[in-house]
């Protein structure tokens, strides 16, 4: 019963992943599928896998996806553009092929009652998993972690930028501001915020100076440049 | 076998009662914590705090909650409607769910049924809490994104980056607890603390957990996602009415959750404090443990409030480097130390407790002394009372010293109340 419920939710979410117009909605559907998968593990008496599935896949990897989608701002128009010629046809063909193989494979399997689960879980699921991981599969386990660390360090090396000039501390910046003030009389503090003493507190309303004149510095350049009606970029 | 047989045996109505109790406890705790926080912070700032609604102003948060619910519910034009509505729910539901595995007490007689005072337990209960907490982060990220506002997006990203970073050091601080308890289930971790609290045995882990739990819940001094001067309201800038109330609720429940988890994992859970159980055996039976549990939990919540009333907000890069460059390597090193001491103890056939306690204490003392030693190194800033730009002139006779004047409200003609505070008569009374 719970399997049917969970499976139908997962299938709907998986379809949502395929047909959602916005990339964020697709990522969210994927999250639902992953959480559903975790619940399946819980139902199959694999509690450790349940927790790890959520922590690793939903909590870390999919969150990373979301970050990228949100920050890069992938648009619907981008995702529907065909970049490789004949991509859609090829993807369709391969998809049908994969589906056929899956249906054939799963259809051939005979579904009987589960065997060997109580032996595998004897003494506790977590304890048995730990036993296996740190005895029989210890090399594979360590190799995987070494691989992951290598990948992480590789990413850091690629993203690393050598600093040419020394880093400016808060003290340096403050001293620079005071020196600038002594030299050119440039105001020490932050720019006047928009809307100060003005009739509106909207971002494009310039602040009024004590003598009643308007301060051009208080309006962001992007708004002052005639884009005031557009607001943020789409 | 697992020691978890006592769970999952309840009749359905007991489960229903427990679910209801967990829900009620979460909501009432939130109302109480908001009131308590306002009251304590007010006292710290020489104010009285809420004192109008109910005894001691206890019903103030209830009144605020009703007011919040009745406010206009705005949805920004640029918002992604579905996600905008889902986000607060996604933040709140996991907050409630995590309380399911917190043990409030031992096995008790609940309406004639012997049952543990805990909704459920599982072999991976603590991991379950971490997993559900990571789903709660979705609520914040999506809320920030769906609002269609730059402030919200930045606040949401900051908040989630912060929560994910501090979850790492938090998880690593918990590893030593798992090592010592030999289990990930909350009831068994409490069971393992019969003789020694893990807070004493694993002092460095406890300290790391305490720091990262403040980061994890976005509370001061780590409340960068809500840095008003930079981000307005952070991820909930565009939220109003009940949706905002849900985010608020989630934040306070999360505070209670990490406090409850700290109690369970480090301060012996519902066990009577300070060896009270040896003097009075009944202290660990029946419903008394609920009292100990809540006392310990409120201790942590009080620390949250104290921190908020005391410390200024950190700068974002300093905050991140504290998490990744200090807490993370420190907990890794400490895990290795604990593993080595425990393994040596097992092979040598002695108890590792005193070694761990001594070592942990020594490390913590050295670190704390290091901090204390570093502070006076910086020369005290001498301000010349000349009154030249940019320093304004000091008052005559130097800086103001000593405490502020005692709290006095209203004209002196009003007689002082029993608590030494004069309160102006309300308008009706004055007539």
Automatic annotation (TrEMBL), chain A:
GO terms for molecular function: NADH dehydrogenase (ubiquinone) activity; quinone binding. Its EC number is 7.1.1.-. It holds the Pfam family Oxidored_q3. NDH-1 shuttles electrons from NADH, via FMN and iron-sulfur (Fe-S) centers, to quinones in the respiratory chain. Couples the redox reaction to proton translocation (for every two electrons transferred, four hydrogen ions are translocated across the cytoplasmic membrane), and thus conserves the redox energy in a proton gradient. Residues 183-234 are annotated as: Disordered. It is an enzyme of class 7 (translocase). It is a multi-pass membrane protein. The keyword Nucleotide-binding does not apply. Belongs to the complex I subunit 6 family. It comes from Nocardioides albus. It catalyses: a quinone + NADH + 5 H(+)(in) = a quinol + NAD(+) + 4 H(+)(out). Keywords: Cell membrane, Membrane, NAD, Quinone, Transmembrane, Transmembrane helix. The keyword tRNA-binding does not apply. It is found in: Cell membrane. PANTHER family: NADH-QUINONE OXIDOREDUCTASE SUBUNIT J, NADH-UBIQUINONE OXIDOREDUCTASE CHAIN 6. GO terms for cellular component: plasma membrane. The chain crosses the membrane at residues 50-72, 93-117, 137-159. This is NADH-quinone oxidoreductase subunit J.
Automatic annotation (TrEMBL), chain B:
NDH-1 shuttles electrons from NADH, via FMN and iron-sulfur (Fe-S) centers, to quinones in the respiratory chain. The immediate electron acceptor for the enzyme in this species is believed to be ubiquinone. Couples the redox reaction to proton translocation (for every two electrons transferred, four hydrogen ions are translocated across the cytoplasmic membrane), and thus conserves the redox energy in a proton gradient. This subunit may bind ubiquinone. Its EC number is 7.1.1.-. It comes from the Bacteria. InterPro entries: NADH_UbQ_OxRdtase_su1/FPO, NADH_UbQ_OxRdtase_su1_CS. The chain crosses the membrane at residues 12-36, 82-104, 124-147, 168-190, 196-215, 244-267, 287-307, 319-341, 353-372. It comes from Nocardioides albus. It is found in: Cell membrane; Membrane. Residues 410-431 are annotated as: Disordered. It is a multi-pass membrane protein. GO terms for biological process: aerobic respiration. Its main location: membrane. Signal peptide: none annotated. It is an enzyme of class 7 (translocase). One of its GO terms (cellular component) is plasma membrane. GO terms for molecular function: NADH dehydrogenase activity; oxidoreductase activity, acting on NAD(P)H, quinone or similar compound as acceptor; quinone binding. NDH-1 is composed of 14 different subunits. Subunits NuoA, H, J, K, L, M, N constitute the membrane sector of the complex. This is NADH-quinone oxidoreductase subunit H. Keywords: Cell membrane, Membrane, NAD, Quinone, Translocase, Transmembrane, Transmembrane helix, Ubiquinone. It catalyses: a quinone + NADH + 5 H(+)(in) = a quinol + NAD(+) + 4 H(+)(out). Belongs to the complex I subunit 1 family. Pfam families: NADHdh.
């Amino acid at each position: 019963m719970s399997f049917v419920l969970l499976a139908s939710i997962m299938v709907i979410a998986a379809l949502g992943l395929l047909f959602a117009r916005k990339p964020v909605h697709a990522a969210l559907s994927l999250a639902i599928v992953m959480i559903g998968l975790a619940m399946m593990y819980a139902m199959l008496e694999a509690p450790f896998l349940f927790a790890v599935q959520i922590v690793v896949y939903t909590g870390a990897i999919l969150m990373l996806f979301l970050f990228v989608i949100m920050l890069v701002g992938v648009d619907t128009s981008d995702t529907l553009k065909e970049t490789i010629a004949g991509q859609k046809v090829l993807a369709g063909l391969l998809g049908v092929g994969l589906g056929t193989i899956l249906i054939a494979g799963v259809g051939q399997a005979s579904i009987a009652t589960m065997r060997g689960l109580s032996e595998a879980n004897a003494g506790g699921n977590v304890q048995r998993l730990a036993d296996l991981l740190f005895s029989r599969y210890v090399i594979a386990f360590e190799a995987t972690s070494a691989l992951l660390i290598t990948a992480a360090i590789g990413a850091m090396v690629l993203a690393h930028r050598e600093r040419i000039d020394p880093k400016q501390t808060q003290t340096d910046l403050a001293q620079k501001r005071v020196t600038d003030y002594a030299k050119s009389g440039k105001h020490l503090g932050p720019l006047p915020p928009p809307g100060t003493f003005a009739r509106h507190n909207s971002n494009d309303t310039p602040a009024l100076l004590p003598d009643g004149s308007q301060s051009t510095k208080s309006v962001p350049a992007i708004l002052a440049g005639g884009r005031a009606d557009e607001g943020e970029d789409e | 076998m697992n020691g978890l047989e006592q769970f999952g045996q309840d009749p359905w109505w007991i489960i229903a009662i427990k679910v209801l109790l967990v829900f009620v406890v979460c909501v009432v705790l939130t109302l109480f914590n908001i009131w308590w926080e306002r009251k304590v912070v007010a006292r710290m700032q020489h104010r009285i705090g809420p004192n109008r609604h109910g005894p001691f102003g206890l019903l103030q948060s209830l009144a605020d909650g009703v007011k919040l619910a009745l406010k206009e519910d705005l949805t920004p034009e640029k918002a992604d409607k579905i996600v905008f509505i889902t986000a607060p729910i996604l933040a709140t539901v996991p907050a409630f769910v995590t309380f399911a595995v917190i043990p409030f007490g031992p096995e008790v007689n609940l309406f004639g049924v012997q049952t543990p005072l805990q909704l459920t337990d599982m072999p991976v209960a603590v991991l379950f809490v971490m997993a559900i907490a990571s789903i709660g982060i979705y609520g914040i990220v999506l809320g920030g994104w769906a609002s269609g506002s730059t402030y919200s997006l930045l606040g949401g990203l900051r908040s989630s980056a912060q929560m994910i970073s501090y979850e790492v050091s938090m998880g690593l601080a918990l590893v030593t607890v798992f090592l010592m308890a030999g289990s990930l289930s909350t009831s068994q971790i409490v069971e393992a603390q019969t003789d020694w609290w893990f807070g004493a045995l694993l002092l460095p882990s406890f300290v790391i957990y305490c720091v990262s739990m403040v980061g994890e819940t976005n509370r001061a001094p780590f409340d960068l996602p809500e840095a008003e001067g930079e981000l307005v309201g952070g991820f909930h800038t565009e939220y109003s009415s009940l949706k905002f109330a849900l985010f608020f609720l989630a934040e306070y429940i999360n505070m209670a959750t990490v406090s409850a988890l700290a109690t369970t994992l480090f301060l012996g859970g519902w066990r009577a404090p300070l060896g009270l159980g040896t003097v009075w055996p009944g202290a660990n039976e029946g419903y008394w443990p609920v009292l100990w549990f809540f006392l310990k939990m409120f201790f942590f919540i009080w620390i949250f409030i104290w921190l908020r009333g005391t410390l200024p907000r950190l700068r974002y890069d300093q905050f991140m480097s504290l998490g990744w460059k200090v807490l993370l390597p420190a907990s890794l090193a400490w895990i290795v130390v604990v593993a080595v001491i425990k393994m040596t103890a097992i092979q040598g056939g002695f108890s590792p407790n005193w070694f761990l306690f001594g070592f942990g204490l020594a490390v913590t003392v050295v670190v704390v002394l290091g901090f204390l030693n570093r502070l006076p190194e910086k020369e005290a800033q001498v301000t010349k009372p000349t009154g030249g730009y940019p320093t304004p002139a000091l008052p005559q006779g130097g800086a103001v010293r000593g405490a502020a004047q005692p709290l006095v409200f209203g004209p002196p003609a009003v007689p002082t109340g029993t608590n030494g505070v004069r309160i102006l008569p309300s308008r009706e009374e004055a007539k």
